[in-house]
Structure of protein-glutamate methylesterase:
Amino acid sequence: MNKIRSPMLIVIGASAGGMAALKKLVAQLPKDFPAPVFIVNHMSADTTGEALVRGLNESGSLPCVHAHDKQPFKSGHIYLAPSDQHMLIAKGKILVTKGARENRSRPAIDPLFRSAAVSYGNRVVGIILTGYLDDGTSGMMAIKRCGGICIAQDPEDASYPDMPQSVIANVGADYCLPVAGMGAVLSELVSRELPKNKPAPEDIVIEAKIAQRVLSDLPSVEALGDQVPFNCPDCGGVLWKVEDGQFLRYRCHTGHAFTSSVLLAQQTVKIEETLWVALRMFEERQNLLVTMSKKEGEKSLTSISQRAKDSQVHIDRIRAMLRATDKDSHSEETT
């Protein structure tokens, strides 16, 4: 099989604890590093990410900037996904989109990894660093299926080990090592000669197109899996189950995507929201009954008082459920 020297891409995903890990990683890359580096670090929609850009520029030799739509990329540069937008990779350029959230995140790691795998196949090196839950696992599966390399931070080295542990358990890392050892491995990997790429599997191509908003229809999602009796917690649409071995994911036709653990966590959030609404309504009802009891005659007083007591029973039950839900949500975020 013919081998060729061709450009490599480094794609990195991080979440909780990511800033410190990313700064330590980029500090190891030389100024003449012969590959572009693309980073998704989970951030809320109301942050700019400027602190991370500044921190990476101060920590290493490679210039770091926020990615822009249709921006050509160059070796020896770091591109950071902007707040509240996905960063995707096409041939020779970056795509920045306002696609549907994946795993409750935008930017999300999986869309970056999948798009890179579709466009550059075995020339992609994926890295998963510290973070909660399992965003990045599905994307890393795509990288591996397209011939790329998987690197996971040693969970004992990670501030929050969930994400690297998920990749190790569900994908199998080619390298599992502390952040301090990644620079030398990357420098070795980007100097390899590689065989020509094979076309990406069709299901990975479909999901990459969905993230670009090129596809968002029922036939596309139906080609990925089977419809299930759950609703998308973000838009209320029907969900389809996508199976990657034992790793379960769910998609709706508008583009929202969830791993099973993230879907469970999001359902817990929606349950809590519903309970708070119910609590407010019962408390308002009780307050109204108390007000009425002060205005009504003796005959109506007993009936109104009993209804107010009944409302208190419901209020106490809902508060107990909220306390239980709060404990469950903390458990889901840390397991």
User: Anything to note?
Assistant: The longest strand covers residues 238-244. Residues 260-295 form the longest helix (36 residues). The chain has ten helices and 16 strands. The CA atoms of residues 79 and 293 lie 65 Å apart.
